[in-house]
């Protein structure tokens, strides 16, 4: 279990001096600007959960992940991973964590991929037979064989991400922290990575915290989402609940055979957004109104042929929370 209690992080940066010799004076000045990157965040993540940690640029996501992994020290508050602090009991906690920063590889740039793995296997003291078996499994799941002998700098972005994910799993951690693991990837590569993450969570029971700007990642993978904005939690719950709470309208496209006669007014709270030829676009909030009730009204307006429903796009829902 991951427990985060009243976590805060304030960065201090030297205040830039103005005028003559500004550079030198900034260097020796004691004036600082404070930036509260994370302000009083608390949450719990149970074993086996797949949680999306999302927010706009500069919201404090990476800062949180760096505190969860022990890279950064909180200004106040605490993180506990299975009851232990990644800052105070670093060695013990690190063995339970796998970390992937999509923007930065943890592999050695000029070495063949498999040499990086050997170094990591030695660092984590994974027993030789276990390491061989695990690498075999990861190689199959992530299709690594074709580039195990290639230096990391020569890999495509998709290959590099697969190589990094395998590296994070070599010591078989129970928890994975992923910061933008699909950034810059094409559709096929994204699908492969998502498939792998789904397997890790559903078949191997790994607990995963995923940071991403790709809302498809979130929708396809996460059962729960934590939204952070200006260093504070704005929402923590299921995606469906979030959609409902925001209450963006569902769009119904109804096609008719022949003419449509839209009356001046009707009883129920739905809107006609567009009328183009024999196609009518309606907006209704499904919390207030069932689709069937809308259709019962609309069936009097002409000879209904077909109905198509469009749920609000998750991207739109999220943009509404970020505002
Ligand atoms: N080392 C640092 N020193 C000073 N300020 C920092 C430092 N690291 C982050 N910040 C600031 O803290 C805030 C949160 O940054 P953070 O990188 O956690 O955001 P993020 O949500 O990960 O953003 P993005 O989606 O753009 O990666 C930003 O305003 C950032 O400029």
UniProtKB/TrEMBL annotation:
One function term, GO molecular function aspect: ATP binding
Keyword annotations: ATP-binding, Nucleotide-binding, Transport
Keyword Zinc found: no
Location of the ABC transporter domain: 22-255
PROSITE patterns the record matches: ABC_TRANSPORTER_1, ABC_TRANSPORTER_2
Signal peptide stretch: none
InterPro entries: AAA+_ATPase (IPR003593), ABC_transporter-like_ATP-bd (IPR003439), ABC_transporter-like_CS (IPR017871), ABC_transporter_ATP-binding (IPR050763), P-loop_NTPase (IPR027417)
Annotated protein name in UniProt: ATP-binding cassette domain-containing protein
């Amino acid at each position: 279990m991951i427990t985060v209690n009243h976590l805060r992080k304030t960065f201090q940066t030297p205040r830039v001096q103005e005028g003559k010799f500004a550079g030198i004076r900034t260097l020796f000045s004691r004036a600082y600007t404070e930036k509260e990157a994370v302000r009083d965040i608390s949450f719990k993540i149970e074993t086996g959960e797949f949680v999306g940690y999302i927010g706009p640029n500069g919201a404090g996501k990476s800062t949180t992940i760096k505190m969860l992994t022990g890279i950064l020290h909180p200004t106040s508050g605490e993180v506990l991973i299975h009851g232990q602090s990644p800052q105070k009991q670093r060695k013990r906690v690190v063995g339970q964590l796998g970390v992937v920063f999509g923007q930065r590889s943890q592999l050695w740039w000029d070495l063949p991929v498999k040499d990086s793995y050997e170094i990591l296997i030695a660092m984590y003291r994974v027993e030789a037979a276990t390491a061989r078996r695990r690498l075999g499994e990861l190689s199959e799941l992530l299709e690594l064989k074709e580039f195990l002998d290639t230096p990391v700098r020569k890999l495509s972005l998709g290959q590099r991400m697969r190589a990094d994910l395998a590296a994070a799993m070599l010591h078989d951690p129970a928890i994975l922290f992923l910061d933008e693991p699909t950034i810059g990837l094409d559709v096929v590569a994204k699908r492969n990575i998502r498939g792998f993450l789904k397997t890790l969570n559903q078949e191997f029971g790994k607990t995963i915290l995923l940071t991403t700007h790709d809302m498809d990642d979130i929708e396809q993978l996460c059962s729960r989402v934590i939204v952070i904005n200006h260093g504070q939690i704005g929402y923590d719950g299921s995606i469906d609940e979030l959609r409902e709470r925001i209450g963006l309208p569902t769009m119904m496209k109804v096609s008719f055979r022949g003419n449509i006669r839209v009356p001046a007014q009707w009883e129920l709270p739905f809107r006609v957004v567009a009328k183009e030829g024999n196609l009518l676009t309606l907006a209704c909030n499904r919390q207030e109104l069932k689709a069937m009730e809308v259709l019962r009204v609309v069936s009097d307006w002409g000879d209904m042929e077909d109905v198509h429903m469009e749920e609000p796009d998750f991207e739109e829902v999220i943009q509404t929370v970020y505002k």
